[in-house]
Amino acid sequence: MRLYYASASPYVRKVNVVLQETGQMEEVERVTVMTTPLNPAEVLQAANPISKIPALERPDGPTLYDSRVICEFLNERAAASLYARGWESKILEATGDAISDAAVLMSYEKRMRPEEKVWDGWLGAQSAKILDVSAALTARWMSHLQGPLDIGQIAVGCALDYVDFRHPEVDWRSGNDQLAAWHAQFLEKPSMAATKPA
Q: Which pairs from 60-67 meet CB under 8 Å and 24+ separation?
């Protein structure tokens, strides 16, 4: 199998953490690609019509794209238990991905637009989403986050670390002490340390 990736992506990191946790890291060749909405990577276009990362090329089927699809495939392939809590795991994964979505949109706004056209209102709206989701995690999801490892924890851990990496001005820890403590501990996992964005 071949994984098309960029190491800073929180979606790619989620896949890499799953590979680490399920013992499949050595079974996947990694190909670094640079792709943006304005300049899609040619190497991706033949296999992945949306030219987004991550994309997992398989010898026995079509290329998989979207981190949720790839992670569920890898979990099933390894007969792992990252989705053992069913819809609870999937809802928390979607919640973590919502943080990543907002943070990546902020990154594109800052990096893809000319400086004089950056929309501060858009950045503020995405920051507010990150803060709202962080508050919801504190209010609703702490017992799940502190339970056995699953895909929801991986998605949230990768997403919050991406916010710290790209947007340290977004203070998601304020008022969320339990979430901050959980995240600090989660980052100590070998799979998270091995996949730290650069």
A: 67/11, 67/12, 67/14, 67/15, 67/97
User: Which residues contact residue 57 at a Cβ distance below 8 angstroms, ignoring those fewer than 6 apart?
Assistant: 1, 2, 3, 4, 47, 63
Place of tokens 């989701």: 133
Residues 105 and 167 in one domain: yes
Task: Give residue 85's Cα distance to chain centre.
Answer: 19
Half-sphere CA count of 195, side-chain side, radius 13 A: 29
What does the pLDDT look like over 29-79, one tens digit per residue?
Answer: 998 877 666 666 677 777 778 788 899 999 888 999 999 999 999 999 999
Residue 197 lies in a domain: no
Counted domains in the chain? 2
